[in-house]
What does this fold into?
Amino acid sequence: MTARIGVVTFPGSLDDRDALRAVRLAGADPVSLFHADADLQGVDAVVLPGGFSYGDYLRAGAIARFAPIMDTIVDSANGGMPVLGICNGFQVLTEVHLLPGSMIKNEHLHFVCRDQTLRVENAETAWTSEYRAGEEIVIPLKNQDGQYVADEHTLDELEGEGRVAFRYVGWNPNGSRRDIAGITNARGNVVGLMPHPEHAAEPGFGPDSVEGGRTGTDGIAFFTSAIKGLMAKA
Amino acid sequence: MPKIIVDVMPKPEILDPQGKAIGAALARLGIEGFREVRQGKRFELKVHGEITDEVLATVRHAAETLLSNPVIEDVVSVKQKDCGNGGGCCGSEASADALAGAAPNGQKDLLA
It folds into this structure.
């Protein structure tokens, strides 16, 4: 059996193709899913990709969150299906209340595009089990509305329950509370983050690493983590 | 045509980077005397027919469901506009979670 991982295309998604490619490189069957369909085509996991769904009109992710496919995804996520939200996908996950908090405009108001160092804080989620807790990884970050905010009570709860999945290291690129780059739900099957693991999945097309220019593939383990988890259950 | 106006503002405890940038730009232009600028959103909803309590309730639902994100924003006011004679006929309606200091009536006077 090969795991089947779906990637949803919304109007204005940009990184759906890269996410599908990363899924394939990790060893799963990539499945294109469309926002207007309610059917998940029997996939085992779903990725909500980056981009500017509906042009970020109103608020990032605010309109995509009401797409027909989201009802099915919310039901499946509540049933334990792994769901990963990357950048705009993370924004959609907060708007649909699968993850707490929200993203507002970067503190410095600039669009940021850089290779970003993150620390993996929780290596027990469906999307991080192939990392070690405390491991530092480098993957690209590119956003304008990336400042993670939540009230203090929610932040304390996230910290207390080990639900901060990733933290920015070295520089906080958007003013996110407590340097939070990504979080998970209590069950660990839903993960959202602003940086882009799918852009660090293939040698020659990733961030620079000690091995040479564009050789970084630190993001691929998101996908191999999910596949391993799905295979263990199968 | 009757309209319903919905005003949405970032919650007081949420930083407003855009408002901050606007405040800095005002100071650069020599337009001074403001302690803080915060930027919100105004929605205008034109209604089929009469504005009834039911319509206002629907708009409040829309305001809290789609127009605002309660994690970062407050619906400051939901009120009707375009009554024609300018004074006191608009039946201002503040939503349940309107900020105490928002004073929709004062706002209406400013708009008149």
